[in-house]
Amino acid sequence: MIGRPPDSHPRRNTPVTTPSLDTAWRHLEAGDPHAVLRELRSLADDVPAAQVAPLVQRLAADSDFDDLAEAAGRLAAGATGPVALYKYGYACVERGVPYLAVPALAEALRLAAAEVREGEKAKRGLFGRSKPQPDNRLPILGELASAYEDEERHAEAAAALRGHETILRDWPERYLLAYNALMSGDRTTARATLDGLSGPDDQWRPAADRVRRALDRADAVESAAAGMPSAASGSTPPGPGPLSHQDLRGWHFALTGGLLATLSPYGFAAGMTGRYAFVQDSYELCRHGLERLRLVLEATGARPRSVSLLPGRADRALGLAAADLLGLPAQPYRPGTEQTVVVAYDLNDIDGIGPETLAALRERAVGEVLYEHATCWTDTPPVSADVNGLLGQTVAPPWQMLGGEPDERPAEALAAEILAADPVQDEGDGDTPPDPDEALAAFAHAVRDRWLTGPRDRCRSSGPVPSSRFR
User: Fold this and answer.
1) From start to end residue, where is composition biased (Low complexity) (predicted)?
2) Is residue 266 classed as helix, strand or coil in its secondary structure?
């Protein structure tokens, strides 16, 4: 939201405030809507929607979000009941502030359920002649689940759906229960719910197939762990248990089908669990990622015959380096090419390709391996790579050093820098489980039969393994 000068929408009524809301109002009057949103995020679950509504109304009006301004205005004017809260929550979700929607929709659902109970009680009265009240629970519940999903609060979404299981339809509500259970790490509920659904129609079949493939890959991860030597034997280093809430590599494979080549060696115990927040990339990291790509290809038995180059400078540089390292010929990317490695630096920032190429990348050719060096985990790319170099929220490429002048040399020169770099792994902060080549190779070999199967669907959530992020 972009605010106008603070006097463009004077406050007509003095809102009910708390100390936290006072701070948010001061940010708004100072013309800093982003600070307002940060403040609202921190207090959204603790302050009733009706108290937040006047501030949201003003903020939405400043941004010309008429639907949200109108819905918030109704609450600010004293509207109560599930319908008013639902419309406000719906508008919050549509305008990208689902954390404001959650408390409103949760309260709307509570009130709607109370209305149903009162209606049932009235029907059991002396004559049962009371006018029946409409049951608004399903649309409210669906929107609440959507808001929770957008916030990656999947366990809460599943709990809300399970709490109203008697009214759920197979599609979409029970499917949403299966999906959110999976994304929260509850495979038992996800599998049982999915197996109990009626056959999906064409609209829901792709979604059901995605969840089933993810569950099958999760089973493969569990089986792989059972067949690998335990850390107690001394043959492998200690690390998170399989499919625990710290097993980033395992869950990344289960949810995306991709093999995560490297884990961040910083901040594991401080909440990063193998992901990066900000990382200044380096030629050494690029080279290390390509070495891990080579290791994955060897461990899985993949036998590419070429490296396919995407047209962007960053993609071409990394692709040329990969071709040299793998000893393969490089060629321009052509959709449908079999037995090739397609190399991208960042699939969210691919120069010179359109939606047709992205669609082709989603549907892999036989033996085609898609490698992405820097994968954004907070704004996931439109297709999921088969091998990911690293997961970061914000990545500055080595040719764009923070605070320095950009390196404008051609891709060939950047590729030479990557090849000349030392691929030695960063030891990190010493508080992170080690990530040796042997662990990745063993994992890749163990799950190889479930790798390179199905389309490269986008996975919008970070799943059961949380990481700290910038807001």
Assistant:
1) 223-236
2) coil
Q: pTM (2 decimals)? A: 0.91
> What is the SS3 assignment for 370?
strand
| Contact criterion met (CB below 8 Å) for 224 and 247 | no
d(CA 384, CA 206): 16
Return d(Cα 397, Cα 401) in angstroms, integer.
7
**Among candidates 194, 197, 198, 196, which has minimal Cα distance to 219?**
194
Sequence-distant (≥ 6) Cβ neighbours of residue 4 within 8 angstroms: 31, 62
Angle (nearest 5°) at CA 60 between 6 and 180: 140
Q: Name the residue with higher pLDDT: 279 or 119.
A: 279
Give pLDDT, residue 18.
54
Non-local (6+) Cβ contacts of 211 within 8 A are: 175, 178, 179, 182, 190, 194
Nearest to 310 by CA among 354, 279, 280: 354
What mean pLDDT do residues 159-176 have?
A: 97
CA dihedral for 461, 465, 467, 471, sign (positive or negative): positive
**Separation CA 226–CA 209 (nearest Å):** 26
Higher pLDDT, residue 120 or 144? 144
C-alpha distance across the termini of the chain, in Å:
14
| Residue whose C-alpha is closest to residue 92's, from 153, 150, 135, 43 | 150
Tell me, which fold does domain 237-450 have in CATH? Rossmann fold (3.40.50)
Task: Provide the pLDDT for residue 127.
Answer: 55
Which CA distances in Å does 70 have to 16, 65, 79? 19, 9, 12
Query: What is the rounded CA–CA span in Å between residue 414 and residue 353?
Result: 21
By residue count, the chain amounts to 471
In this prediction, residues 236-262 reach a mean pLDDT of 90
- Beta-bridged to residue 340, according to DSSP, are 306
* Residues pairing with 279 in the sheet: 395
Q: Is residue 448 helix, strand or coil?
A: helix
- The ranges assigned to domains in the chain are 1-151, 237-450
Tell me the three state secondary structure of residue 393. Answer: strand
Return phi, psi of residue 389, to 5°.
-70, -50
Could you read off the pLDDT of 392-433 as tens digits, one per residue? Answer: 999 999 999 988 899 999 999 999 999 999 998 888 998 889
Least confident range of 19-23, 198-202, 315-319, 386-390: 19-23
Residues 6+ apart with CB under 8 A from 182: 190, 211, 214, 215, 218
d(CA 364, CA 302): 14
Rg (CA), the chain: 25
Query: Considering only CA atoms, which of 134, 361, 389 is closest in space to residue 281?
Result: 389
